[in-house]
Sequence to fold (76 residues):
Amino acid sequence: MREELFNLLKEEYPDVDFQAENLVDDGIMDSITMVGVIGTISMEYGIQIPYEEIVAENFNSLDAMAALVESLRKTK
Fold:
């Protein structure tokens, strides 16, 4: 999942270093990019990310995003 998600996001947002930690906390990924990432993930994986899951800790790293996608796919 992690590699698949990395490839998807890197294609859509080539200027963002998705290998970095603290993507949100360090300002590597701004709020507008985060909204785009949420949309990209939702469309690609056919999931809805609940409002309460849209927090920095779920988007601060590629591992966190992959874990979120996997958990939401299981409940789908």
Q: What stands out?
A: The chain is about 60% helix and 0% strand.
